[in-house]
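re: ur question from earlier - yeah i can do the single chain one, its not a big deal. heres the input i used so u can compare w yours
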Amino acid sequence: MGSKARVPRILGNRMHQTLFGPEEEVVPEGAKVRGRNPEQLEARNMHLLYRYEWYMRDKRNAYAWVLEQLSKEFYLNQFTVSWVVNGNWTVVAKIKTEALSDGALKKKFPWW
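and the output i got, formated as tokens:
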């Protein structure tokens, strides 16, 4: 009876070490599942993408300045903001074609 070797598992860009394979991972019944709420992450990312497009409408705003502003607004690292924007470029293009006015954005996001 040998011990199980630690199997590396890739999740996103990070390498994780685990004792169990994916088929053996089981959450015990009644255990509180920790982690990030996917619905809240999706809502945050959509708001971030709309804000990104809104800032970029003014051609005088530099990309680095926009990343810095969004980083401050959403309490995220600039790398994370860039990662969200670049990973959702098709959504940004769709938002750009919508060309929502400031009033429409305030209606869609009341806290705008």
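The first strand starts at residue 7 and ends at 11. not sure if urs matches, ping me
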